[in-house]
Amino acid sequence: MQFKVIQRITGILLILFSLTMVPPILFSLFYKDGTLIPFITAFVTILFTGIIAWLPVRQYRKELKLKDGFMVVVLFWVVLGISGAVPLYLSNHLQLSFTNSVFESISGLTTTGATVIIGLDQLPKSILFYRQELQWLGGMGIIVLAVAILPLLGIGGMQLYRAETPGPIKDSKLTPRITETAKVLWYVYLSLTILCAICYWLAGMDLFDAIGHSFSTISIGGFSTHDQSLGYFDSRTIDAIAIFFMLIAGTNFTLHFLAWRSMSLAGYIHDYELKIFLKIIAGLCFVCCSYLILENIYGNHLTAITHGIFQTVSIATTTGFTTTSYQSWPTFLPILLIFASFMGACAGSTCGGLKVIRVLLLYKQGMREIKKLIHPSAIFTIKFGDKPVEETIINAVWGFFAVYTVVFAFLMLLLMASGLDQITAFSAMAACLNNLGPGLGDVSANYADINLFAKWVLCLAMLLGRLEIFTLLVLLSPAFWRK
Length: 483
Prior knowledge:
Elements: H1 3-18, H2 22-31, H3 36-54, H4 66-83, H5 86-90, H6 98-109, H7 125-153, H8 177-202, H9 207-218, H10 236-249, H11 253-262, H12 266-270, H13 272-294, H14 301-316, H15 333-343, H16 356-374, E1 383-384, E2 387-388, H17 391-417, H18 422-433, H19 452-466, H20 470-473, H21 478-481
Antiparallel strand pairs: 1-2
Helix pairs in contact: 1-3, 1-4, 2-3, 2-7, 4-6, 4-7, 6-7, 6-19, 7-8, 7-9, 8-9, 8-10, 10-14, 13-14, 14-15, 16-17, 17-18, 17-19, 18-19
């Protein structure tokens, strides 16, 4: 383990992260909203902490290795998640405890969207912008992680995309090509954000709301500048724009990269995972809309269809925007959508959950086992589209699913032991481990009223979900620390 290299990178990350306080400082100066001191204090504190960490090892430059990669990835979210809580904790407008501040910060950076803040419409614009900014920056970090790093680290089946991934895949070291990959991904991510903001603005949002919601849409975060989320605008045009960009953000960013490089849409048309994802979304939309119409929930077919499609896409992609109180829908619909969030969207996107590719491989493996029972001597090859899948990848997916299930059950039991009822514990764990945000029961509106222990458990769940479980758990293995 090259601790000096890790220390140097962590210092640089903190120095760069301190710059995220500059836009809120400018907002505070412009609007004179009384948040200047907390953001300046946070800027100075984080900046000097980063300098102190970086300065002693600034000349120590070596290539990162596999173990270093795991450590850097975990530190990215843990250290920045805690650092991001500083201005929230210091703000007199929020009056948040340390626990609530860390919860809100980690929720933002992991693009979960679970919040402990009540009364968003009355908050200063500097704080509102900062929350949206956290999700946007976290989303960019997720893209680089998912497309450039996780395939290399071999996290539970993500390496299936090695052939298409424009990152370092030839050896077990993190090479400078990650910089090239990250640069192009940044261009794609920024371009989609700008396009989304323009569309929101043309549809009737003011410029501040358009930019803020474009941040949380492309990052699939779900934070809003209003308590009613996108329902505040009561606009079917805005809803349609959000649906389109949530699906775009839920698509593998490798495809966006290839489309950018080749100036062709062929990659989208021929991608097997994307096709399956869109078919599943269409099926879920049909079920939700049909049930809402049959139960006459809204008294108007068009309204039922609009809300049905929006909430299906929002929850299934783990975005978490709302236009209506879907938690009050009848019988199985809210639970159906929560289960849809376990799948999430495509690998290599900003979504949470297991990812479509893993769910597909689990299904195909299950079907193969059934065929083996009928024909014990036959050899069946699992294919993803028209490509055969290696057994090592299948085993990795099964391992990931097993650990995911055990972690979910264990953490949910901890929530129940802390006093949460079954519905609240289940939905809160699903919402945080899948990086979704809104849950059911006592967390349907926000997470402010649950106990402190539950909030720390959910912070861990958010990090585990965002870091693909193994990335964080591997650090707890004694084998990881042996030379």
